[in-house]
Queue: 2 jobs
Job 1
Amino acid sequence: MIEAIGLTKRYGSKVAVHDLSFTVRPGRVTGFLGPNGAGKSTTMRMMLGLDRPTAGEVRIDGRRYAELKHPLRTVGALLDAKWVHPNRSARAHLRWMARSNGIPERRVDEVLGMVGLADVANRRAGGFSLGMSQRLGIAAALLGDPKILVFDEPVNGLDPEGIHWIRRFMQGLAAEGRTVFVSSHLLSEMALTAEELVVIGRGELIAQCSTKEFVDNAGTQAVLVRSPGAAQLQQLASDQGLRVRSTDVDTLLIEDATTEQIGELAAEHRIVLHELTAQRGSLEDAFMRMTGNAVEYHTNLGAQATELTTSGVAR
Ligand SMILES: Nc1ncnc2c1ncn2[C@@H]1O[C@H](COP(=O)(O)OP(=O)(O)OP(=O)(O)O)[C@@H](O)[C@H]1O
């Protein structure tokens, strides 16, 4: 389990992370979601003892990183896939890491097999594609067989096959009972990968909840209606305070409404409907609205939900 408690990081006057508290539990993939610059990498670096918090702390199975007796056996991380000596082979790179951390060398071939790099184990890591480098980074994270894994944007720049592989691999690690914490700036990606989400914007917590709950709330709801009585229905819906756009003579788009609501309104006034369809706005657009600046967004997502003020600062 990973616990962030009141985590804050300032770089001079820049506040990268502010009073961030959340919990990451084992047995599922938890997505760490936020737009570029939201503070995900900074938070992950603090988790791994690579950056010192200005305030607050991170506990890994109840301890600070610096207190862990065998860090690599407790928590494995992929932060920067290109962090290898370019002239070393994949196997030599992992052997060097294993040796310096008291991990038996036989584990090297095990992890190379797990990530599908056994056939290229003796090739120069500097010549690896991004996808292969990511696999090597994951192999390094797995060397100590840790129960906790932290991956920073592992699918960035990968082709669909690479993305699919990493997604399935992370889900497999979680299914073994491990704690898997993975960052991304794409809600659509996290919706397919993670069961639980920690969402941040401008260094502050926006929500911690299940992915389903977040996605259900993130998409804007609208109802598309096609009807010979569109004009009358437009008037009725407007009278109820709904925002209605007419997209064609017989077609309306009614925002923040449900199909039940519009269907019943039409029935009450004996208006014939030819189509009644629920429409979802783009998930990414909704996500940017929720995490970006200059938005007023009220959410009741999860226990730790916060409310964004017009300046985008959570309170
Ligand atoms: N060493 C540093 N010195 C000054 N500012 C920094 C430093 N590291 C990060 N920042 C700033 O802190 C903020 C958070 O950055 P961070 O890299 O953690 O965000 P992120 O969510 O991981 O985004 P990205 O996906 O773009 O890396 C950004 O505004 C960034 O410019």
Job 2
Amino acid sequence: MAKINEDLLKERKKCSFNTAELTHLLDGGKDKTLERHSREHFFLDDPELRSKIPLEYLSHKEKYEEAVRKSCILFRKVQELQEAGKGGIENFREILGGQLGSAILKDGNPLTLHYVMFIPTITGQGDFEQQAEWMHKAWTCSIIGTYAQTELGHGTFIRGLETTATYDPKTEEFVLNSPTLTSYKWWPGGLGHSANFAIVVAQLYTQGKCHGIHPFIVQLRDEETHMPMKGIKIGEIGCKLGMNSTNNGYLGFENYRIPRTNLLMKNNKDGTYVKSPSSKLTYGTMIFVRVVLVQDCASYMKKAVTIATRYSAVRHQSEMKPNCPEPQIIDYVTQQYKLFPYIAMSFAFQYSASWLWDIYNNVTGELESGQLENLPELHALACCLKAVGTADCAAGVETLRLACGGHGYMTASNLPSTYGLATAMCTYEGENTVLLLQTARYLIKIWQNKKNIQNLPTVRYLDNALFNNRSYEKSVSWILSALQQVAAAKIDLANKHINDRVRQGKAYEDAWNETSIELVAAADAHCRTFLLDIFNLTVNNFQSISPELKAVLTDLLELYAVHTAIRMTGDLLRFTNTIGKDVEALQLWLEELLAKIRPNAIGIVDSFDIRDEVLGSALGAYDGNVYERLFAEAQKSPLNHEPVNKSFGLYLKPFLKNNL
Ligand SMILES: CCCCCCCC/C=C\CCCCCCCCCCCCCC(=O)SCCNC(=O)CCNC(=O)[C@H](O)C(C)(C)COP(=O)(O)OP(=O)(O)OC[C@H]1O[C@@H](n2cnc3c(N)ncnc32)[C@H](O)[C@@H]1OP(=O)(O)O
Ligand SMILES: Cc1cc2nc3c(=O)[nH]c(=O)nc-3n(C[C@H](O)[C@H](O)[C@H](O)COP(=O)(O)OP(=O)(O)OC[C@H]3O[C@@H](n4cnc5c(N)ncnc54)[C@H](O)[C@@H]3O)c2cc1C
């Protein structure tokens, strides 16, 4: 084992709590930690899953080929785990998501959509016979699928998709067509050259009538040769800001025929077309992915904050006092302000993600028995948590990259590619503004009719929050009550402005659009009250943890609360009876909390227990040997493999001569 950096050794001695206790708490128990370790060992210690050359130095094509090689090994190993009866959801979550997934495939996995959307759509939308026909092939990976919904012309407005599936009663087939350039499918992961099947979302036509969008299972490529099927036009969409191994593709249809039975029929029971009880049941896979993405936000944030916090303990810079040694940069309070709120935020997202996951499972259970009442609340919550979680995560990763100065800009820090993964989440699975407007739509409806509100756990606070008006106290409960009042006031005001505009003669839709900046802000505030509420409830409910750990979690909870409140200072002053002096008190409380957390900062990120291979960072490794690792990474540059590059002879030398 490499020698541990002296600063980190000192930091670890300062820690006031048992880091293993926190690790077990975060994992859900010691058994779960051991399970995770064994899973990490199974994947990360497999030499086949390592790359010989850093990805950054490969061409676009080579990156893709290396990603396919690794994804196949990864999926084979997932199947081995399933066969051994160890195939729980945690496996998929970690292998496809922010931890193991991004460690093994730093720039994305071209086969992810198979598990994340193709299989869940067959399960959620296929009837019994269809599941019997397709699930075995999909689970055993005899076929590899993707989810082809978005088109060149439409991603958000899915009712506007143009791909058509027209029923031909003579042959009992659907005929798929892409009538325009804008109707080409565009974006689906793995569609370019990896998947041989897809769920295709298309407008269903029977007897000349359009019945709206429906999901179909479509074969794209020959199962033996992988050649595109006749009538299928397919390829990759090209280079992106990040995720360059995910093989996002395009797809067009020319009179492409599929059997009638390939229309997923769970909600259309008989062979003729029957309208489903809610057209939104077709959108179920999107809710599922939004829910799991919130967990990914916590994972990426933990990873980035571990890298930046360890680096900040090792890095020394400037003089705080004359003639004193250069301090660790973690001792600058501005630096603490860049790091510690994101440590706290990781907890907030993990706890809310876990609540959301439970609510999701309850509501999908209800849907199976035809109960739809709780779907709107789930949809509204999933939309805002996905939007706020991914936005805070991407902004957090960027702040943490900046916190690492120049070295944060190196790909060897792994912060640039983590940002590439995090910022993509803000767009895919529903663009964030659009999702916040979905939440706002629900909140306005609730505001206009509060009859049933006490049965709706995520919004029942709106019943009386408008009049909280509590005077300032240094407590989380005061901040929560103030944030709830802000959310209620913002919803109330947006509602009033819509009504005013309608009264002035505007169409409701125009009034909505003109009020939409306020609506987005209202949904954002609502989401932040939920995040704080759940963090608070979770910490208060921990019964059997040590007082030392409880104290640390309370510090983090308070920091999250105060940081959120300070970010919303304007709102507090505008909508609650907070006054200037209270804001000053909040600022002092924030500074006090940063100082309290400072000695435990390394201990807390150590408790995240993220293996070096997962961090993938010269700046964040457990041993803190930052400079040695940066130097070693630089040696991997192909330019350093020869003392003089051929460009010298070709261009530089003649150029230098010409300038003599
Ligand atoms: C069994 C499974 C085994 C496998 C296990 C796997 C486990 C994996 C676990 C973890 C893995 C984690 C790893 C994650 C890694 C992820 C990597 C992913 C890679 C990339 C994936 C990206 C994929 C995509 O992007 S797919 C495309 C996504 N597209 C979108 O999201 C489009 C966004 N647009 C929309 O959703 C909608 O069009 C809209 C909501 C914006 C508008 O729709 P609309 O016009 O039809 O609706 P209205 O505005 O008119 O509203 C009508 C009404 O409906 C309500 N509504 C809307 N949507 C929903 C919904 N989804 N559910 C319920 N209700 C909905 C809306 O609120 C309105 O209600 P009213 O009552 O007000 O009328
Ligand atoms: C990395 C990545 C992977 C993806 N993977 C897949 C995949 O596997 N399968 C798939 O089908 N799709 C996939 N997508 C597509 C993705 O789901 C869409 O890009 C996303 O839903 C946004 O839609 P859009 O591109 O049409 O954006 P647009 O809707 O065109 O958004 C552009 C701007 O318009 C605004 N806007 C649009 N509508 C409204 C409105 N109603 N009100 C206010 N503002 C509005 C938005 O806020 C945004 O600012 C992927 C995308 C990315 C980036």
